[in-house]
Amino acid sequence: MRHAEILKQGQKAFFAEPPDYKKAEACFEKVTSLAPNWVEGYHCLASALEGLGEKARAVQAYKKAIECNCNDPRPRIALGRLLTSMAHLKEAIIELQLGLALKPHYCEADARLFLAEAFEKAKHLSKAIEQWKIVEKMEPFYPSQDKPMQEAQRKLRRYAKYQE
Hints:
Elements: H1 3-14, H2 21-34, H3 39-51, H4 55-68, H5 73-85, H6 89-101, H7 108-121, H8 125-136, H9 147-158
Helix pairs in contact: 1-2, 1-3, 2-3, 3-4, 3-5, 4-5, 5-6, 5-7, 6-7, 7-8, 8-9
C-alpha cells in the first residue's frame, strides 16, 4: 500500500467520532517510514501523538516535519501552540512568529491568537494586545470564520485598561 493511502487511513481514524488516535498513530508511523522526507506524515503523526497526550514525542514529530519542509507554516504554528500548552513560552513565541512569517494560506487569525496567548502567558501584554488588534480587523475566513475576531474582541475588552 502506498504512503498516501495509509495517510488517508490514518486521517480517517484521527477524524472519527470518537477519534482513534492509537490507530492514527500506527498509520502515520508507517507513513513516515515509507516517506521519511514527507512533511505531511510527520505533521499528522504529531497531531495523533498530541491526541494521545504524548507531548514530548509530538514536539519531536513537529520538529521533524519542519526539517522536511522549513517553508510550511503549519508544523511551526502547531509546534508553537503545543509548546505554549507546555509552558515553553520563549520557544513557542519563536515558532509562532516564524510560522506567521511564512504567510499561512489560512488560519492566520488562529495563529495570531496562539501567538497572543503565548505573549499573554509570558506577561508580554502589550505584544498580546497588538496581535488581538490585528485579528480584530481581519476578515472572517475558513475554517474558523469569525470566531477568532470574536475572541480577539473579548480579550481586548478584558484588557481595555492596558491599551493606549
